[in-house]
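Our consortium's second objective concerns turning raw sequence data into structural hypotheses that experimental partners can test. To show how far this objective has progressed, the report includes one record in full. It was chosen at random from the queue rather than selected for favorable results. The single chain below, 1015 residues long, was entered without modification.
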Amino acid sequence: MRIRGFSLKTKMATVVSVLFLFIFAGGAIMFENTFEEHYKKIIAEQQFELVSKVAKDIDTQIREAQKILIAVSKIIPLNELNNYPAMQKHLEKVVESKFFLKTYFDDGILLYSKAGRVIGEVPYSPERYGKNFSHREFLQYTMKTRLPYISKPYRSAKPPYDPVVMFTAPIFNKKHEVVAVLGGAVSLSKDTTLGGIATVRIGKTGYMYLYNTDRTIIVHPDKKMILQKDVPPGVNRLFDKAINEWFEGSGETTTSKGLHVIGTFKRFWNTDWILAANYPIKEAYAPFLRERWYMAGYTALGIFLSILIILIVMRRNLSPLSALASQAEAIGRAEERLQSVSVETGGEIGALAFSFNEMLERLRDREASLKTTLEDLREREARISSIVNTTVDGIITIDENRIIENFNQAAEKMFGYNADEVTGRSISVLMPELHESRHDRHVQAYLNGGRHKGLGAAQEVLGRRKDGSTFPIELSVSEADLGDRRIFTGILRDITERKKGEEELQKAKEAAESANQAKSDFLASMSHEIRTPMNAIIGMAELMMETPLNDEQKRYIEILIHAGDNLLNIINDILDISKIEAGYLELESTGFNLQELLDKAYAIMAIRANDKGIILDCRVLPDVPVNLIGDPSRLRQVILNLLGNAIKFTEEGEVVLVADKYIAGIPDNDIPQPPIQYPQPEEVTLRFSVRDTGIGISEDKVNGIFEKFTQADSSTTRRYGGTGLGLAISKRLVELMGGRIWVTSIVGAGSTFYFTAPFRIQKEKPQSEPAAAAAISGHETLRPLHILLVDDSGDNRLLVQSLLKKTPFTIDTADNGKAAVEKYKSTSYDLILMDIQMPVMDGYTATKEIRAWEQLNNRVPTPVIALTAYALQEEIRKSYDAGCSGHLTKPIKKNELIGAIMAHARGSGVHKQGPGDNAAVITINKDLEDLIPGYLENRRKDIASIKEALEKDDFEVIRILGHSMKGSGGGYGFNAITEIGKKIDEAAKNMDKKGITEQVEELSAYLHNIKITYE
């Protein structure tokens, strides 16, 4: 197209205007399209960045929460897991001392037993405490895999039943078995931790939510959607893609509610959770749509004004171009300071001049800014250099070729080099020769694309000083990528003193272990050396009592036996307290009957009480389960100790033992509480109280009464005797059983000792004791047995033979283990009594050889009973490990020895005496016969008490009295009283007055019939 009839300026103005029109309009359209694409990309990236940051923060919080929970699980005291109140208090102290636990686990910290029961909770919630949650998948998973776990969301068991997520950490015992689980609950409804996701807003209406890969909504601003599967497959393509294809990013999609949104999705690393955000398209693109209209208007206006200005200015301002060119050329020749161009004309030329001057101004500003930046960099470099040179740790920087670039003052002091001496040299100058090649291989392997395990982690290495000496260093290495090259910075710390401390600590540990072993050896040796002569002293004294003696001789021997028993009790107390302190005392876990245990304790202590004219009573409340699992021997030891003390310090009145259920929160006193009906649990905590009317304990002495070698005052020791170890041993035994012991007392009025102990309840009634044990209490006959007695001491052999002289037993002897093995191979024996410590061959070795010979020759094992002065649990275990059938500790009592033989002899050498049998008859312990009149008198008093209670309709008192009869009758041989007590107990439970009256009449008649016999 040619333009004619117009001047050059007009033609130029027209052509320029048309070109400018197309360029401006086309540029505006292109800019609009580019801007739209860029805007959407920015929105998507910003949203994904926000979601990623939130996901990363939550991921970090989850990891920290898991680490904290695992750390707390390791400080849970395993010995108190069965003591729920103590466990609750311990958990409360832990949470109080570690306040951040409440920040992470805002719905509570819970401790679950192995069975899934909540045994500790902070804050305390009656809806969850004590309940069984073994059905929860997080408990099942943790118990099965022994790993920490983050649960799927579920409804909390406590009001207002908010949705929660449970973090778990297993608690292991020494055998690495899971014995409990520590849990931390995180609320999904509160605006903290996970629940805070729902409060995040994107724009005005955009929001975030959290869901699982099984499509369950975990957190959502709409609380009703939590725990719902609100998004069916196929409705939201990006929602599905995030689940099925691990999609992470942003894109346009449609929600299940039909809303067109920018959806963003980010997966969690620690869980199967996905964090998502929805930003409505309408709101997200609103600024862009407004900008589009503004841009169109501005473009149209700009085109119009531009054409107008071009037409006007082109005519007037083309001529000044030469002036501007000459000024520009002059400026280009300037060698010193740049000068602004002065042009008075307007239009394009003026704009060009203005732009040119602005460019000059920006150049000046940039030059000033660069100068300021350079000064800042120099100042920062000086500051960093000062920090590096004043730090106490050595800092060394090397390049990829292992050449030292920086060496601070601490490193100079550490290695003895000046920085100038090592800068530019290989780092190997600071290493022992043996380490140089290994270090070179590690660096080269890393530079070739591998990863050095030392980067970012502290490790111990050896350094070499300038004088050639070596020393231990803790080294941490980091890498910096400078683009064209990489440098490595090492931070070094001299740990010479720390290593010396560790060596000294190890030596101290070895010394302590050696001392502990020496103590153990001393205990075993002292036990053996003391018990061996005690065996002969007490045994011979008992044998002398069976010979004809006058009254004075009998009294002397009784004093000798009594003194020997007292000395043996002192030895046992000292050994017990020593075993406890050395950590050698272990509790058994076996089934037993509580009523039988207390009856036997009653029978033992009733003799002492009767001698002093004191009333002794023993009660087991009706709601107490009697078939238990625990350590009956240690329980019996504590009870006998407390009863013995009570009788010792009581001159008149009574001593009462009561066993009842221990319920947290019920006052600790000796008043029997009304029975409370509870569902039968697997465990029960019992409280035992021993009340006396003795001398009492002053308030200032109560706190120290359980310390070793402690009594109320020195006058007490002089008057009543004793070592002061009994209560100390009792306290430690109770604590080992998982309970506690305490005392209340009034001087002159008496004391009450309490202790608690947890037990498991037997699901089945325990089997009766062997017939041989029962045989001890009555008249039984013994069939002849052939027994081999092995002991290197002639005194001990004589003692055992004398103890068994009146029995139908044939006894062969051997003075060492080797001789015993030879005799056993050539003779058939029914039982072997084996000493342990002997010359030539000890009892352990002899028993093992006997068992090996029996197995080789297909012989039925012969019972072997160890007779030894060793009393430590470890030595008893050695006896059983060697193959012994039983273990008796010297000094040996006649009754115990015969009872053990009866229990272990092949074919059970016990049978009831029949008519015409002429075998020896053994009668054991007839002392209870003196107590029977008093026992019967107490039952007559019970009749009066029952009648009085019957008039008041006080069935609870009647039930307690009946239960007491049921438990005590058998101990004295009155099975009829046991049966009557049982029926009274049942009738009282049913409030059956007629049945109670009938049983009272039957009891009265029974007591009348036997009055003449026993009184």
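The partners drew two points from this record. The chain is about 50% helix and 20% strand. The two ends are 152 Å apart (CA to CA). Both points have been shared with the crystallography group to help prioritize constructs.
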